[in-house]
Structures
1.
Amino acid sequence: MSATKKTFTLMRSNQRERRHLLRGAFAAAGAAVLTGCDKLSHNEGFVETLKSAQRLNQAAADIVAPRSAMAQEFTQADVAPVFRSNGTLNPGDADYVALRDSGFAAYKLKIGGLVEAPAEFTLEQIRAMPARTQITRHDCVEGWSCIGKWKGVQLGPLLDQVKPKPEAKFVLFRCYDSMDGPSLDGKDSRYYETIGLDEAHHAQTLLAYELNDKALPVSNGAPLRCRVERQLGYKQAKYIRSIELVASFDAIRGGKGGYWEDEGYEWYGGI
Amino acid sequence: MDTSESERLPVAEAMPIARRIYRHRLPVRLMHWINVVCLVVMLGSGLNIFNAHPTLYWGNDSVTGTPWLSMRGENTAAGPVGKTRLGSTDFTTTGVLGMSKVEGQATSRGFPSWATIPGTQWLAAARNWHLFFAWLFVINGVCYVAYTVFSRHLVRDLIPTRDELKNIGRSILDHVKFKHRTGDAAKRYDVLQSLAYLVVIFGLLPLVVVCGLALSPRLNTVFTGWVDLLGGRQSARSLHFLAAAGLVLFVIVHVAQVFIAGVWNEMRSIITGWYRIPEDHPKQEVRP
């Protein structure tokens, strides 16, 4: 009888020991997993593998949501009282400050690059073109959303005026705002973005000059900002300086197609 | 019953400890472990993404919506503190939520470094992890559901019988007493266990996926207004978080149960498939 009891207690203490061991092993494994993930996040090959899912995301999106599908539009009652601003709120760049202080009277939007008929447009000319007004939800990559009413000119018809060449694939927006000061390697840190020509021709893609029935405020990108309603906030370039049609963005700054893209964010901002 | 079998029977009874069943087939084991990896990565990277804007709302818009959970760091005379607001109540959560140390440095961040992938606050990298493993997670989940249906694992093992459902009271009582099933009863999943699995497989997992898809501006256009069925985009973000929290709760209980039921036996069965049926009664008839 006592022998059985002894065996039993022995087994119990054995089990307890094993349980402790296992718990320790779990904790160690957990820590190892997290350290491993941190190391992998800096491994270029691994990051490229992770980023390969982007192409899958875009292909899947094209299948389930047609390229012409419209972003949801809301009603006046849904509009937030103050539209949230993010990123640059007031560019300090000298050329921008000069324009801002004169009420953007001297502003001219240059559209060039791979086009047959490069042109310049004053704000007055742009405001005189047929306009579109839309109440849409702006979704930031950080996670917040804000509903606003935008008025502007559709980008597609505007681009048609300058006659894109067949080799043009992307629309490049060069902006006024420097993100982290001029850099020494000649690559300035001015914000820039690129979108595909198909996205540029979407009915809701605008160069907006009004927000909530008022002239676009400086904090939201005056005098012109892009609206690409089916992508995240960082694709909606503010403070647009010029537009260029390009065949590739490999040679532009970090080569990833946008300021935040160069910092590791996806070029396709639809997810 | 023929004589040869009745002769063998007492031998089997004398050595109940040797009774083993092949409990988990290879596809289930494989998909279970793929799921473990996916859930760990999805949770860690998800919390890093949450930290980029550590507030959750009900509604479509974060300006007009109603915040219900929020984390923040504050500098006070006594040093930096972490605060978490749930509804309209503030909790001090210094060191874990709102403010925690990153490499010894007090930092304002939602969830702490040890819970996020990557450990540093790095939204772009976290999104890369999250959106890659999301594919693995969903493909694995779809394969699992297809397997459970076509192999009849779903009907045979997961869906409780009418009798089992009638006896749910006893199962609850057994759980409260931490009493685990033995003998033939242990061959089948317990009714509460089955229900928990079904809620996870057909409730929480689809919910977490659908709410995740609702966060994509492009997928919002699949048909106009579908995200409003979830209460709007910010509500979808909240539900995505809550469904994930439900999954974490499930995993905690699941792992606790494994420890209570016998960690070696359970681990063996989910790695090799073989499960030892716990004896009906403790061994008493030890002969001198």
Note: Chain B touches chain A through 48 residues (CB under 8 Å).
2.
Amino acid sequence: MKRLFLLAFFLNIVFAVNGQKYMTKNGFIGFYSHTPMEDIKADNNQVVGVLDISTGEMVFQALIKSFHFDRALMEEHFNENYMESEKFPKSLFKGKIQILHLSIFQRPEPMMLLLREILPSAM
Amino acid sequence: MRRLSVTILLSLITLGIFAQEDLMNIVNQSTPNEINYTTATFKSTRVMNGHSIERMQTGQLDVRISHRFETLNSGGYNFFGLDISYIHLGLEYGITNWLMIGVGRTEIDKTFDGFAKFSILRQSTGAKEMPVSVSAVTSVALKTLKFPDQNPTNYFTSRLAYVAQILVARKISEGFSVQLTPSYVHRNLVATELDPNDIFALGAGARLKLSKRVSLNGEYYYIANPKTYLSQQVYNPLSVGFDIETGGHVFQLFFTNSRGAIEKQFIGETTGSWKKGDIHFGFNISRVFTLKKHLKSSNY
């Protein structure tokens, strides 16, 4: 799959917090869906994420209004009609990587393999 | 032994919770406190007849088709007004995220019109708190109907009328928005010398969301000048109707006592009265096209 629906935040600026935690403030989450009429696609480049490599726990959070679309109207509908961003402004993911290989931090490709393993439906 | 293992287990759980909490804190602190601009105060760039605080975003083209039919009290012979319609066509475009322009043509007096709408303040919460949105609208209308009397010298400027409006709106809650619109209309030429060239009016508009896609809108303009002209009696325009949103379209269906769809016509030229039953059914159709895309394609 060349186009990945979800590309977690490790590939961006990652820096250590307290030695064991890695975090980013400009992680990326995007989604894409093809329809005959028009493609539905949005990017969010302001995802905040933290990974604790000692425990494998990870948390990431995105502001719904930071998803940006090609079409301004689509973005408005996304926020107003579907996501109700006024009521639910943030989206949070908490998880734990069961088997964490530290070698994944040395090269990005194994990381993608791992992500594909843990998020098979999203890849 | 058992007690010890329970203690260890408990402390492990606590540690685990602590670690998660810790990560949560880091994430929460790092999530940017962005300026949260209020969106969709109104669904369209018009409340009904008059402008709303909304504008086209950068690179978006709005094609508007508006009809006002004849009055309901014109009787069954005219199919309650639906036999006769007054059409306004408009092309409106967002140049930047604070400026939109538009041109239009209406059948009444064969009038061309053009406007510019400037967004001055935007209602927001978060990093910047702003209680209201404020925009300014300035428009000009050019009447191209042939002068009835060709004898005296007719000047081009006599065909022009100017409008200036300040729009102040607030989305009070998710489902309810209000707007106040102080307006000034200047007509270069009026029918008689006792008719006012300058008209001052205060407009008020509101939107009540009935469902995710349907809202009830109302709009009223109070005209401060005496409304009994030598040439005609005019009334304050009142419009009530619905906004129906479907994807890229917004349909506005309403009843109004105004025949004209542009400011210069519904402020100071509304000759219909709700009391007498001079109620026009009207609709606006807005279709938005994206001419310039917002975001550069990402390569994932």
Note: Residues 14 and 117 of chain A are 22 Å apart (CA to CA).
3.
Amino acid sequence: MDALFSQLFAGLSLGSVLLLAALGLALTFGQMGVINMAHGEFMMAGAYTAFVLQAFIPDAGVSLLVALPVGFVVGGLLGLLLEVTLISRMYRRPLDTLLVTFGVALVLQQLARDVFGAPNVDVRAPAWLSGAVPVLGMNLPKTRLFILALAIACVVALSLVLKTTSLGRRIRATVQNRDLAETSGVSTRATDRLTFFVGSGVAGVAGVALTLLGSIGPTLGTNYIVDAFLVVVVGGIGQLKGAVIAAFSLGILQATFEYSTTASLAKVLLFVVIVAFLQVRPQGLVSVRTRSLA
Amino acid sequence: MTTHPLPSRTTRKRALAVSAAALAAALTLSACGGARTADAADGSPSASGGSSCVDTSGDTVKIGFLNSLSGTMAISEQTVRDSLDLAAEEINAAGGVLGKQLEIVAEDGASEPTVFAEKAEKLISSDCVAAVFGGWTSSSRKAMLPVFESRNSLLFYPVQYEGLEASSNIFYTGATTNQQIIPGMDYLAEQGKKKVFLVGSDYVFPRTANKIINAYAEANGIEIVGEEYAPLGHTDFATIVNKLKASGADAVFNTLNGDSNVAFFKEYKNVGLTADAVPVVSVSIAEEEVGGIGVDNIVGQLTAWNYYQTVESPTNETFVAAFKEKYGEDRPTSDPMEAAYTSLYLWKGMVEKAESFEVADIQDAADGVTFDAPEGTVTVNGDNHHIAKTAYIGKIDADGLIYPVWESDGPIEPDPFLEGYEWAEGLS
Amino acid sequence: MSAPGTTSAPAALWRRPAVRVWIGVAVAAVVLFGLAPAVLSDFRLNLLAKFLCLAMVAVGIGLAWGRGGMLVLGQGVFFGIGGYLMAMHMKLSDAGPGGVPDFMLLYGDGVVPGWWEPFRSPLVTVLAILVLPAGTAALLGLAVFRRRVRGAYFAILSQALAAAFAILLVGQQKVTGGTNGLNGFRSFFGYDLADPVNKRMLYFIAAGVLIAMVVVVRLLMVSRYGELLVAVRDQENRVRFLGYDPANVKVVAYAIAACFAGIGGALFAPVVGIISPADVGVIPSIGFLVGVAIGGRATLLGPVLGAVAVSWAETGLSEQFPSFWTYFQGALFILVVAFLPQGFASLGGLWRRRRAAGAAPGEPPTDPGPTGTAPGHATADDGAGTTTTDDARTAGRTA
């Protein structure tokens, strides 16, 4: 019983990490069909932001709280730069963006290696996040609770933006029918840019959160990018709801498989489940009806 | 939109295609035929790669350094390259080997086994080096081994590894299992630990090490309460640490690699496990990894190695001082670095004893060559080409260094196939 | 320049696309069979053989991606299946008394698993190399294409497949050699691999197979199937409305690409002497695409030349500047894909188009179509007689 609950929590926690990694992708991929392989490197940039800030702000707690918004801006600006310089030129070639952004990812990784050195670096966790909270006889690590809360906060904030602001309305209009939105006076170019900024910013936040779980290295992003894309594919594009459900389902599934088999086999099983799932619902869990064919 | 008169065009193309295909096939066949006759003639021992092109006529001799400077292993292998460079510099300053200055041909293994094989081939057959120093991962060594055997050249491999190997073309200057894994287990047994949990990255070294540990445990009344592997680069250890906690283990033997250690130790600490109650013995965490993991997360934990920066000996003092002078005060020295440094000196010793750079002469002369290394005196075993080393269990201190808390009674003779251990009989 | 089909001047013969292609193939054959063995050392020749194996994968990708619009990000899987099958056979035939490969004695329990046994036979091995990768691809393709999973979704799935495959190989150390992979092969169908003459033989086999593959792709390109494939790439729905099943069309190209990758892998193992999970995962799978993109994805010889050139550059440049190479590789990806989507092959096309300025319009496309309007989906640069797309606005975009 105890193990069951701990595993459930492990799954939720893994799901929250996946969600943070995939949220930004769900936005950029959902709206623009852009497969941004450099998304993981934006997470890495966020993580290194936390590392750099810690050098200036001695208090680990304060520097973490400062790192969250700063990481958002750093990730967002990188995304904006990428959008303006490269992606905007290739909106009609979504598959090619995958390759271009992979090139960007390679460059960013090497850049991190040259700037921060190849060895991994560590960010100290604040004292108020060390240890665990006893719940129902289990010890839930505070860092994982924090990340869970952060993921939920990001989802809530994003859905508020999408539902209540004019930017949100423009984004939703663009997702549902780009041409019609444009005809109706929505500047899809400006919307795209903002979406990319926000989506990449969330990656930066995810990177800051990841410093609580592991160390930071140039390859931090590559570890998450495939999983994050799978979340988006399973979730379906166009709505955050899909990504949320997908992230937590995949997290719990992975934790369950891992508990009953091994970590390696769990990954393989998860892939089998995803392919089988796409047989049933090729469009993902949730999808916005569009007027495009097929 | 144009449409073409398809039929006529295609026919013409078909004809051309057929002739080209026929040409290709004929050429392929003739090529095969040529090889077959050669193969038949090859019944005599023509010793394909036997002839060496090493040039020792001048006042320099070439040696090759082959380490990953790019890719995932660059982090670790760069440190080995640094200490190799240091050793070469020292040897050259002291007059070289047999009066010849060392000329280094440096290559990047790019963290890929195929690249290691390719570059080894290049070093031997194009650059004509007298010996190659490097390699880190098991897979890089396994990939290079056939190259060195078929070309009959020498590789000095400086990293602790999973044993079960002895090639006459490789000298292993890192620990084999009975110089690291078994002392680690001996120590836990001495401390009265009865329930050990095994966690490792999913690759050859951890799996082989754990196979040995299982056999050891069975023979020594220790229970293995869990054995978990994480894919390389795995960073979510919630489940594995849950299993560890639920298992009731009183010690952990850790063969995790690289980044995974950080995530593992953070999780371990978060669920409230402590080094006092459930100590972790790690065999892949050396001085330079401690900083990346974060000293807070790992202070008080144990490691099993054959060298620490803190080992007290005059040679080590000189080595540490020389290294820091060349690369900076903040750079620690670690076991693989020391083994690499030692490997170059051992080769020098063998060459000087043999008075020759020839592979066969060096192999003959190798047995009993000793070097007063930073870790203590090491001696080459001529039978299995490993070296006798002292084992140290160390404790990670708050200053980021590792201090020995236990050491073996003098150097342990290498036993890569564990032939001297009764309980290990069924293992290989 | 006169349009093909209307000219009769012999001087213009080489300009005919069809002739040019065959001249290209013939030149490649002469270079591979005559020039390279004559001027390269054994070491460099073996290196070239390795590049040729990688080029085989590239030829398949050129077909599936360049022609079929399927971004295959998981070719490492098929490369790996081929490579491991061949490696299994070589390990079994090298095995000493008892017939158990050395690594199984070391890491496993010394028992050869049942599914290894058939590969003692050279015939079964060769058949499996030809059939298994293609069969796997066909099954997977049928599963996903029928459900109209395509574009980015397909790309991501194929990438995840590569990740899963590599993890599976690593996890099953007792039967796959784990991260070490399979290595230390001594003989290739009875021929001693340490003998340089036999290494040369391997090179010639690789060169012959590669040329044969190029010929096969060429024949496919000019066939009705080739046109159908391009049509599916550019306007899948229109093809469906015409009564074809696009899924079947795609599956064939995907399976052929997989078959080529498998053969490439099968030759890679003896040439390089090792096959390991590091050769089959996500990163090498994307790596296969670099050469294709650079050479020109939709051309016949572009992928081959691109793959060989990139591998050569990697070997050469990484020797001197390991970190520079990563920047260079990244920059190549960015610049070529973003600004030269048809690869360097299109430079030739641009040059020809400039020379041909003023020639009669409306004739077969000896030059790539206006890339601005058919982005990402190349038209036939070699002038294979395929119809250019009139409307390729958002092909490949998923719904």
Note: The interface with chain A takes residues 72, 74-75, 78, 202, 228-231, 233-236, 238-240, 242-243, 246, 258-259, 262-263, 266-267, 269-272, 288-289, 291-294, 296-297 of chain B (CB under 8 Å).
4.
Amino acid sequence: MSAPDWTDVCALDAIVADTGVCALIGGRQVAVFRLRDGSLHAIDNIDPFTGAAVLSRGIVGDRGGVPKVSSPLHKQSFDLRTGSCLDDEAVRVSVHAVRVHDGRVQVAVLRAGAQDAVGAMPSVATSSR
Amino acid sequence: MTSSGARPTVVVAGNGMVGQHLLDRLVELGAYERMRIVAFGEESRPAYDRVNLSAYMEGRGADELSLWRAELADQVELITGDAVVAVDRDARTVTSASGRAIAYDHLVLATGSAPFVPPLAGADAPGCFVYRTLDDLDAIRAAARDARTGVVVGGGLLGLEAARALQHLGLDTHVVELAPRLMPLQVDDGGGAVLRARIEALGIVVHTGAATAAIRCADGRVRGLEFADGAVLDTDLVVFSAGIRPRDQLARDCGLAVGERGGVVVDGQCRTADPAVFAIGECASFEGRVYGLVAPGYAMARVVADTLCGGEASFAGADLSSKLKLMGVDVASFGDAHAAAPGAQALVWHDAVGGVYRKLVIDVTGERLLGGVLVGDAGDYALLHQHVQAGQPLTAAPALLLPPAAVAGAGRPAGVEGLAETATICSCNNVTKGAICAAIAADGLSTVAQVKACTKAGSTCGSCVPLVQRLLEHELEAAGVAVDRSLCEHFPHTRQELADIVRVRAIRTFAELLEGWGRGRGCEICKPAVASILASFHNDYVLADEHVGLQDTNDRFLANLQRDGTYSVVPRLPGGEVTPAQLIAIGEVARDFDLYTKITGGQRVDLFGARVEQLPAIWRRLVDAGLESGHAYGKALRTVKSCVGEAWCRYGVQDSSSLAVELELRYRGLRAPHKLKSAVSGCARECAEAQSKDFGVIATEQGWNLYVCGNGGMRPQHAVLLAEDVDTATLIRYLDRFLMFYVRTADRLERTATWLNRLDGGIDHVRRVVVDDALGLADELEAAMARHVATYRCEWEATLADPARLAQFRHFVNDEVADPTPTYGRERGQRRPLPLLVPAGERDA
């Protein structure tokens, strides 16, 4: 198990409540949202329906209590906690870890595709239980 | 690792798309709490989107295609780079290539298929590839560096995808197909001919009816491809895409039955002869058939997940009808596409000039649609497919369904009840009025969100949503159901009610309104709607902290979002007038930022391809040149188009351009339920096309005629005469009242034409309010407009003066580099975006 690899993104104050920004983390575009309730969420920034790097510019809100962002291109909504598209169950974006450390927003990209995929996932413990 | 005893263990052999779908589904059903789930994947990486392999070739990262999700690691043990190589059904254990042995209670085979490589001499030489995995693509890409020519053997769907990839790598690309046409399974000869012409127009050389005899090699690598007739095609690289073979060896080795054409035999629960062993996807054979599409594989995965969780779902086969876009060409095939049914008859539209082929297969009685092939124009695929599935006699002559929509003509405008059942309501998703009405009745739908989810109507560009809403209300009213006109789940009010609340209670922020009259956090429906209402009545700066998160991206960045994530910029040119100095300034900005430049229909100049971080610098220069925001991005007044009028024109009877400038400057920045367009014509010849606008003015000898509620676009509607021969002061008074009345009472995204069609009393009611002041609202409406006019400020000028706002105009918050996603070519001397990598729907896997 490797520890999460946190990258500094910006000051917390740099994100207006209920909006998002886009961060570049090791070549990957990550949309980081700060909600009015104080929670932070990070998902991929590329809209899987169009390929455009725009999700950070979507409107955040909720559907039935599920916090979500709506793509600015064609308005599909994505669950901010899981990355699932709420309008098309076959589609999802990746979710990444995000935290505030000394007033700074930090993101750790959760990588899939590593040689040992299970072991490479930060912040999740796995073993045969 | 061994089974932990208490919880049953499910082992999934194979981590392709279908295997992964099973894992997702099991997790979704909560199975991981009751079962230990172990999955083996042969490739070094977890499952990825194989349907979009070509996206990888065009630059999408492997991790972007990944279907694995971090949180699954808690719930599933995925072992990558290690395949199951043996199954002991008596001991109920599997053994992997690396020697792992795991006991199972349930085993699911999801080993997929392998590409079929024809047994040709030289087919295993360096330079020969298949097109199946990311590793295959890496190998092809590496080989393409030293290659000039590439040949794909196989002209099916996957072969054409591979050809697209080779072409993208810069190779002279050939496709060789044994059958007499491309995509022989899906289309017929006529469709194949049109498809071929369109593929060839893209620069790919197509060889059909061409049998490959051997691969020629020299110096230990591929040099050419030899046809059965002896001809030779020089090539450096060969990709085989000649079909798939189920990977069923595990099942054969442990004594499970396989089908005649391969594949593990399964029943409706996807169970093999051994009740503890299931098979899904392309390694399974159901009723003698192996499904080479991802959708049936997904359906099988869901059946197995359900069965393992105690459910009773079953797989009953799958419809192989499909519609896809291949290198920009629509191809659809549905039902009895090859007219195999006894007595089947075909109608054919073969337009070699336009590149459109359509064939409809009709039954022996001439009454029922059995299937068809559509190439180049499959716009009405959904409708036709629906007819096949319904199996009912057609209500119209089949010949009327045959021509493409562009030839057949659009439906009639007007109220929804006047639309034909076959009228297309949503042209993005080919949803007809009939389909929507049927869904409303059959599934008891009562909200637009449900109609969108169920029919997809309105789920893409959204321009038809108001029409869908009307249709829904009409259908529900007809059925005697109370109609819910709530804006969305967060507000049990209509837009008009919310506008009244904001006005009467002097609400200034969304948070205030949500707290007092709504629930939840809001969404992309209510936030922009409320932002628009707040802007209409208070005219506050839209990018203020409390408003910025409410704005659609266009309003948030004060520019129009384009498909590649960049923006377009439109300065206001009131009445379409522009000084030479301003035109030069615009041209210089366009040149310096390499913006694609186009004249709009509204007599303005649109500059495309501006990156978000370039917008402030672009606007700095435009504002310095005396230009201001054109609000092309807003649901607001766009343009007041004009002719030159009596100043220059020998027919003009009034000064139309001066009036147009006056009106545009008066109403600029007015946020409304939808965009507003206007025009002023200097005589009855109507060169400015005022009768197609939300408000249009036509000069008369005596003054002005005022027309309102016209519309161009998808459902053109002529504007209606509201007042005749009025002077300029009266005209402006009426317009102030009319616009504010519309702003107060229309629904969200309801254009004036739709609003008028819905209003009880129609234009007479509007005239009573605006001209006769029957409701006593005139003073109030005029005062509201006067406030707007007095408080107007160019949003770009305000933004340029606000460093905190300017700081928001960047793509990466933590890096200065530009968004690398969009790429460009050049066309007719200007920049043109290359297509982004758009994931597609179901495909041959």
Note: Chain A has one domain: 7-114.
